[in-house]
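User: quick one, fold this
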Amino acid sequence: MLISSIRYLLSLRVVVVCLLLLMVLVFWGTVYQVEHGLWAAQQRYFASWVVLIGGFIPFPGAQLVLAVLFVSLTLAMMYRFALGWRQLGIVCVHLGLMLMLAGGWVTQRYGQESFLSLAEGEGSNLASSYRDWELSIWTDPGNVRTVTAFDAEALRPGTEFAIESLELRGTVLAYDPNCRVDPGGATDPRRHVHNAGGLQRLMSMPRNKDPQSDVPGLRISVRRGGGDPYEVLLYGGDDRPTVIGKEDQSIAFSLRRKRYPLPVFVELDDFEKAFHPNTETPKRFASAITVHV
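Assistant:
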């Protein structure tokens, strides 16, 4: 059984079939993204092992096709080619293809898409996610900020969380993955909602084709020690943290894009932006940075 499987994977027909399947997937993905967006097309056709056509007909996804192609190339290197100068060119080609496929899988499996936005003179060792969000809670006892973060995907209504070091306990009242400020929404005068910008209500919106454009909202109830509960409203589009409590015992809350620590500290020294003559079309971007290891 094993020998017959190896012989089948060594066949050139497997490579041809894999290339044809990839052509079909690229075509379907291109058509699909017109209506559903690039992110949805990537997840449906290129980041999946099996695609259900029509909701029930299985079709190999790009992950499965590329895995079979990688195995076929590996077996060809082991059994078809003899090491020698005459085979050096074709061996290098196969090694390059194998490295590209393996690198793509590692990037897709373990890579983190994030960005670092800085103004001139600023520096940071934290990158922000494009699509993932988190609830961040911290105190500022001095020059050191201790931050506790909860993944927004786990913030479902009724979910409880706690930070023992702060004697803080909270409950998620509502979470909306995409919303906007509702300036004309009616408020209950008997209920005070804490928010840095004075927001009282958020309006739910349909999800965007690309989750990168979604701006979430969160409403939580928190209590510190045996004190009274606070109702906190957080909006992802507001960069200002909401602070509750006294100055010496205050706690800050923020709904922000998920942060990833970097192994270096990056500082932006200067930024230049040049335009084409007599137009507002950017011609060149240049940044001078200092990297502290």
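User: anything notable?
Assistant: The CA atoms of residues 133 and 153 lie 8 Å apart.
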